[in-house]
Design goal:
The complex is a heterotrimer. By secondary structure, chain A is α+β, with helices and mostly antiparallel strands. By secondary structure, chain B is an alpha/beta fold. Chain B has five domains: 107 residues, 3-Layer(aba) Sandwich (Glutaredoxin); 202 residues, NADH-ubiquinone oxidoreductase 51kDa subunit (Rossmann fold); 84 residues, Ubiquitin-like (UB roll) (Roll); 89 residues, NADH-ubiquinone oxidoreductase 51kDa subunit, iron-sulphur binding domain (de novo design (two linked rop proteins)); 56 residues, Alpha-Beta Plaits, CATH 3.30.70.20. Helix content of chain B is 39%, strand content 14%. In chain B, the strands form six sheets. In chain B, strands 12-11-15-13-14 form a five-stranded mixed beta sheet, sandwiched between helices. In chain B, strands 2-1-3-4 form a four-stranded mixed beta sheet, with helices on one face. The longest helix of chain B is centred in the last third of the chain and has 19 residues. Chain C is 46% helix and 13% strand. The termini of chain C are far apart. The chains are: A alpha+beta, B alpha/beta, C alpha+beta.
Chain lengths: 239, 617, 152
């Protein structure tokens, strides 16, 4: 166990935890955009920035990555921290002005758009938090989507921006997306799901007959786990 | 060379044998074929020398040697005649016959090929008298003009690999201690003490341990690492092998820019030679220590100069940095203990081992030791690589060694530290150049780039240039760098195109502060420097752009007009001829005029005018 | 093509960490990285195509499109910038009607700006079809492009 201070509160924590883990466990709110407990932290959004140390040695770090240590002094709401968060949010608001989720979060944090930043007109709500790419790679294990280009041109896409033949249509990327950028459509009868520009035929439950998962996904699971397809053709409510 | 050197004694014997076979009085011609001189056409000169030497049957009587960069790139292609050490500059194919005939055979000096001081006109015969060289301390770089990079014998003839032999007989901890005592600081950017890195890596748990040489020199305007790797690859290798032994590493990488084909070639040749000679690979010099190296070419991304991005690239991924709350010395490449130093840092190591850490610490200032190679470029007379002790004044570098400003114009500022460094104004010309002094004035050492600017450089445009470079080199992982630099660029473009707004300077400052604090890696956190430092010293120039819609330096196209000075125009018609849009017109021998509505401010008229009659305001 | 890619990959022992050098070699062989080439690299190396595509678009050294017959690179290093490289870039764009990174529709010219070439004494510098041209200005650039066959 180590002893540290967050916002003047003395806290005991287990070694190896991050500042974010410990803060949340102790009821201290730190905003995040790219964090998900199921994934390794990425440190890309910088919303969770906090200030550590004191005086001239004080510096801003990302709480999702920084490990707690004995005697660590953390300030989760200093002026510098507020400036970083404000800037990050204003930059993202200008990047994705159409995302309602972002606008709501900004409002909660009392951050207003910077009028000098011209709002982007490309309609993209993607803030490159990487949750979708990381989920597809590490949780689903498919790596159907990834990044392309760098800097201002960086974006999340399927290779060559064409429909991917390895995507299984599971929709995990869409459900983890914090800004509503990744869209998943289902046909009126429920037999087809469309995501990343590709249509997926849905499998109907062998018991209740409801469409419940893309066939490709079931084939993938069967291949990975060795469970025969027939057993997988049952939806979760009938199982 | 294929003989395997099996012991320290054998190395010494071989060195002595090579030296004994070389007659110091024998006439020699050394030609620089570094990239700068090659661009000047040095290869044709080399071919001409070979041909003429053969034709005259002189091949046994004289040594002809092609070497890497000597540093005085402005004057290439250049030749040194030994043993007298005569220095010839701007040597052309036509001069080759004369050099052999007059200088080599008759001992005459060819006046027309000598270097003349552009200010005083004084000529110098010998290389060491030329002010550019005379005022330098060429410890690390000096060997470049003595060795053919593809010939290991040349390196052995100047006692190369003696430091390695000495190190292999020492305790690894004692080697680390020498480097700590020397207080050698990283030459690549941050200036982190190399000895501390070595210490941490050697103590770190985990295996294997890696040593890496960062040769991904991405700073535009800096090319000392390339010149070292191209010109003296064995020196870099020797440094790395010593480091590997001190740290306890058996595997290493050299990560080199793919844009440096000659450096890639020469280091690969050197590695092969070193392996064959038993200086690399299993049981080096019979010491029992084994170490080998691979060369990996970079893909062209500035961010890969950042250590964690470099590791990602070496692992076959896009060069995205990771947060460095755990040091690379503990978890670096493949999460193993890794010691990363750049080319110049490694090249310093053999000298420290040979002469001792105390010797090294005796050179330089309190906290910056040794010599540093600077790449002096821009609006300067003597463009080139300059090696001076830390603490040498900026004025000495720019005016005494660099020969002052091109075309006798007025010095305005010097930009140091690469794209994310800062601009230093005239008021600081007398400051001693070292890590801490540069940081104090808002710039940094970086890898040692020094770009000299005159009154014709617009500082707002320069800030826009660097921000544009950094925005497009940002890996795009974190928000402050990716989005913030884009917005900074947008605002700077607005200012340079006459759309600047009242509060823009303050916004740039606060945005800059947030990016510095918020960015993930060193590229991002130092990226606002060019903007912040130019605001700090040239705020009035920003204000002129924003409030008066005026570019005082006459650079920003949207804010300037071209016109003809009637007092100077002779009516030569040249401007009318070169103008691509027909904006410059006039009759022969009569004063010309430029139609501001048609003019695209391309600069062709000003460049062509022989009478300085084109006014840009 | 697939055979050649396989041969290059084998030359690196099928080691995934050599993805970047492998792509450099494949590009050197075929002039650019075609979709098929990238797919073959992915298959031979066992790296998902999304990762191969990511790396191919991340690094500036890679081109996913074929290049023109004449290749013109303009150095945009800082030394060249302060010596007026931007004016030259404007001139090239005006004459060839292609921007930085583009290839003309007739596949005759490719133009790109590059980071420092490290020959700062000669700035501004153009490398045209591998040959260095130093101390360039607008007039000399025009002349050079005409020499390469550009009708103006």
């Amino acid at each position: 166990m180590v002893n540290l201070t967050i916002d003047n509160r003395k806290i005991q924590a287990e070694e190896g935890q991050t500042i974010l883990d410990v803060a949340r466990k102790n009821g201290i709110t730190i905003p995040t955009l790219c964090h998900n407990d199921a994934l390794e932290p990425s440190g890309s959004c910088r919303m969770c920035s906090v200030e550590i140390g004191e005086g001239a040695r004080a510096k801003v770090v990302t709480s999702c990555l920084y490990p707690v240590a004995e005697g660590l002094v953390v300030n989760s709401g200093s002026e510098r921290v507020k400036n970083v968060r404000r800037t990050v949010m204003q930059l993202l608001l200008a990047r994705s002005p159409e995302s309602e989720q972002l606008a709501r979060m900004a409002e909660d944090l009392g951050i207003h758009p910077e009028p000098r930043f011209k709002p982007s007109e490309d309609g993209s709500k993607c803030i490159l938090c990487r949750l979708c790419v990381r989920t597809c790679e590490t949780v689903v294990g498919v790596s159907a989507i990834g990044f392309s280009f760098r800097g201002p041109e960086k974006n999340v896409c399927t290779p060559f921006h064409e429909s991917s033949n390895i995507c299984i249509g599971c929709g995990a990327c869409a459900s983890v997306c914090p800004t509503g950028h990744i869209e998943m459509h289902v046909s009126p009868s429920g037999d087809v799901r469309t995501i990343w520009g590709r249509d997926f035929k849905m499998a109907a439950c062998s018991k209740c007959g409801l469409y419940f998962a893309p066939e490709d996904q079931l084939t993938y699971i069967s291949g990975r786990t060795g469970v025969p397809m027939e057993e997988l053709m049952v939806c979760s409510s009938c199982r | 060379m294929t003989i395997k050197i099996k012991s320290f004694g054998e190395l010494k014997e071989l060195q002595e044998k090579i030296k004994a076979g070389r007659d110091p009085r024998k006439p020699g011609i050394t030609l620089c074929v570094g990239t700068g001189c090659l661009a000047h056409g040095a290869m044709k000169v080399a071919d001409a020398f070979r041909e003429e030497i053969d034709k005259r049957g002189l091949s046994v009587k004289i040594d002809f040697r092609k070497t890497g960069c000597h540093g005085f790139c402005e004057r290439g292609p250049m030749v040194i005649i030994s043993p007298e050490n005569i220095f010839y500059q701007h040597v052309k194919v036509e001069d080759v016959g004369d050099i052999l005939e007059k200088t080599i055979l008759k001992g005459e000096v060819i006046d027309g090929l000598l270097y003349a001081n552009p200010q005083s006109g004084e000529k110098y015969v010998h290389e060491d008298e030329v002010p550019f060289y005379k005022l330098q301390t060429r410890t690390v770089f000096g060997m470049n003009s003595k060795v053919d990079p593809k010939n290991m014998e040349d390196y052995l003839a100047v006692d190369g690999y003696s430091a390695l032999a000495k190190a292999l007989a020492m305790n690894p901890e004692d080697i680390v201690r020498e480097v700590v005592t020397a207080n050698l600081r990283g030459r690549g950017g941050g200036g982190f003490p190399a000895g501390r890195k070595w210490e941490e890596t050697s103590k770190a748990k985990g295996s294997p341990k890696y040593v890496i040489c960062n040769a991904d020199e991405g700073d535009p305007g800096a090319y000392m690492d390339r010149s070292l790797l191209e010109g003296n690859p064995h020196l870099v290798l020797e440094g790395m092998i010593i480091g590997a032994f001190a740290i306890g590493s058996s595997e290493g990488y050299i990560y080199v820019r793919n844009e440096y084909p000659l450096a890639v070639e020469n280091i690969n040749v050197a590695i092969k030679q070193a392996r064959e000679a038993g200086l690399l690979g299993e049981n080096i010099l019979g010491s029992g220590f084994s170490f080998d190296l691979k060369v990996n070419r970079g893909g062209g991304a500035f961010v890969c100069g950042e250590s964690s991005a470099l590791f990602a690239s070496l692992e076959g991924r896009a060069g995205e940095p990771r947060a460095k709350y755990v040091h690379a010395t503990e978890k670096g490449l493949y999460d193993k203990p890794t010691n990363l130093n750049n080319v110049e840092t490694w090249a310093n190591v053999p000298f420290i081992i040979q002469n001792g850490g105390d010797w090294y610490a005796g050179i330089g200032t309190d906290h910056s030791k040794g010599t540093k190679i600077f790449s002096l470029v821009g609006k300067i007379n003597n463009t080139g690589l300059v090696e001076v002790p830390m603490g040498t004044s900026m004025r000495e570098i720019v005016f005494d060694i660099g020969g002052g400003i091109l075309n006798n114009r007025k010095f305005k500022a010097i930009q140091t530290g690469g794209p994310s460094g800062g601009c230093i104004p005239e008021a600081y010309l007398d400051m001693p150049v070292d890590y801490d002094e540069l940081t104090k004035v808002g710039s940094m050492m970086g890898s040692g780039g020094m770009i000299v600017m005159d009154e014709g450089t617009c500082m707002v445009d320069l800030a826009r240039y660097f921000t544009n470079f950094l925005a497009s080199e940002s890996c795009g992982k974190c928000v402050p760098c990716r989005e913030g630099l884009q917005r900074m660029r947008e605002i700077l473009v607005d200012i340079t195109e006459g759309r600047g707004q009242e509060a823009d300077i303050e916004l740039l400052e606060s945005l800059g502060a947030s990016i510095k604090d918020g960015a993930l890696c060193a590229l991002g956190s130092s990226a606002p420097n060019p903007v912040l430092s130019t605001i700090r010293y040239f705020r009035d120039e920003y204000e002129a752009h924003i409030k008066e819609k005026r570019c005082p330096a006459g650079v920003c196209k949207a804010l300037i007009t071209y016109s003809v000075d009637p007092a100077k125009c002779t009516g030569c018609t040249l401007c009318a001829k070169v103008c691509p849009v027909g904006a410059a017109t006039g009759e022969k021998k009569k004063v010309h005029a430029i139609d501001p509505d048609k003019c695209t401010r391309c600069g062709a008229c000003k460049e062509s005018c022989q009478f300085d009659a084109i006014i840009v305001r | 093509m697939e055979e050649k890619v396989s041969e290059i990959v084998q030359g690196y022992g099928g080691d995934k960490s050599y993805l970047v050098p492998i792509m450099q070699d494949v590009q050197k062989e075929f002039g650019y990285l075609s979709r098929d080439a990238l797919t073959a690299i992915s298959a031979n190396l066992g790296v998902p195509i999304s990762r191969v595509y990511e790396v191919a678009t991340f690094y500036k050294a890679f081109s996913l499109k074929p290049k023109g017959r004449h290749h013109i690179s303009l150095c945009m290093g800082t030394a060249c910038h302060v010596r007026g490289a931007e004016l030259i870039s404007g001139n090239i764009t005006d004459m060839l009607k292609i921007k930085d990174g583009e290839t003309s529709a007739d596949m005759e010219y490719s133009f790109e700006t590059v980071g420092c070439l490290g020959a700062c004494a000669l700035g501004p510098i153009i490398v045209a079809d591998g040959e260095y041209h130093g101390e360039m200005n607008i007039a000399k650039t025009t002349k050079l492009l005409k020499k390469l066959g550009k009708k103006v």
